[in-house]
Amino acid sequence: MPTTLKWLGHAAIEIKTGGKIVLVDPYFTGNSMAAIRPEQAQADYILVTHGHHDHVGDGVSIAKRTGATVIANPEIAGWFARQGLKTQSIEMDTSLELPFGNLKRTEAAHNSNLPDGSDGGTASGFILTTQEGKKIYLAGDTGLFDSMKAIGEEGIDFAALPIGGYYTIDPDEALRAVKTIHPKVVLPIHYNSNDKIKQDPQKWAARVQAETATKVVVLKPGESVEI
Ligand code: NI
Ligand code: MN
Question: What's the mean pLDDT in 210-215?
Fold first, then answer.
């Protein structure tokens, strides 16, 4: 079964792989780009990159309804666990063997306070290695950081990178990230969902494709790509 990745708007992504549904940063309520309503979300696992409201999103209600396991850093996993939800915590720069593949937690240059003000630990990115051996890098919200080079050395097949700026890397910095990581394919995310992060993804795609060997996939919320 091929792996499919669907962009659900902002940083929300659904990955179907290894017979499981992995939902990333499930922010739908209040997300002007949301492709679905929270009650339509499906999940066996929910990955949360950091504590901000636009990433924790509807994670609590979706985990409750679906019985999904929430995977996040120890502070965020603990916050979900205290609400009676199934969780799996993951330490920085370590990997877990999971029923859908291998999941590694990577650095992200960002903060991580939870919506209620509690400590959300350190922000994360993830590298998901599918059972077919494809490596998907989910950067989360981030600035540029030195260990992006090491992430690139893993051989990334597909990367989801923010381009919105203001909260994260902007189009110029995201282009530099592509030049550091050199993924085979990149998907721009975390733009146009509010006025501070207005960007033209097609213009960015043209620059990336002129200056790098990486293919850019620009999706509309709700559209999928096979990996
Ligand atoms: Ni954030
Ligand atoms: Mn964000």
Answer: 98
